[in-house]
Amino acid sequence: TGAIPVRPAQALASLLVAVGVPDHRVPDRTEDRAALLRGRLAGRRVMIVLDDAAEEAQVRPLLPGGPTCAVIITARRTLAGLESVDRLRVDVFTAQEAVDLIRMVAGGRRVDAEIDTAHEIARLCGHLPLAVRVAAARLATRADLSLARLADRLSGERGRLDELVAGDLDVRASLARGYRALPARQREAFRALGLPPAPDVDASRCAVAMDTSMTEAEDLLDALVDANLLDVSPVDHAGAEQGCYRIADLTRMFARELAGEAELASAPRVRRLSCGLVTVRGGGHARQAAARPA
Prior knowledge:
This protein is mainly alpha-helical. The protein has 17 helices and seven strands. The strands form three sheets. It has a three-stranded antiparallel sheet. Helix 3 links the parallel strand 1 (46-53) and strand 2. Helix 11 (184-193) packs across helix 13, helix 12 crosses helix 13 and helix 13 runs parallel beside helix 17. Residues 275-294 have low confidence and may be disordered.
């Protein structure tokens, strides 16, 4: 799916044509298309890839019914309603994995000559796969751009997202698609997360920022975890074990952009958010969210 999710009927039509059904034989109704696809795939060994799925309702009609078929689904948020699936959360790269990707895209000899700087670029990208890929693509397409110069351009928080664009690869645009899919209250909570300087936030701090109850604050934070805009960390920034949520640096920069400089200066709840609030244990509720897939 892109900015506008592909409708199941449209995706089914494409799949039916791909398995040999002529255009004029594709049924009009979505359920008839789904039934025809299941019939065409029965007994065949087929792998279907559904990339960037928006929701369960978009996916269900596309699933074959036979045991000889398999489906790989990627999604920005947890599709918890799908049954009988094996879930895998795609985490950030390790430092070495990030540098290996930079070497593969930009050239091993060039990167090895500035290997420490390559590690710094990976760190500034938060080891996020898309961000690392964009940085590597910029190096690959600009022979005159040294790793040191790119690292310098990435070093400032204010313009870092501006630098992480290469062709149609765009970190800010990717984050924006996830943000736009949120309900209004969750968007408001996400914007608030960009305001404090620390990467960690807990439910009590969110409750103050949102002027709401602890229960709603936990629900909002868990919804952002499901949307892959927030992570759950078993240890807070000071090292104490508790239900603490963590926002990646690039994601926090995007949230801060959305909040806007005027809100930063004037919102009373932001001033409260920046204070040293008492943290609370998140218990099993937060840790359960930590096991979510991507």
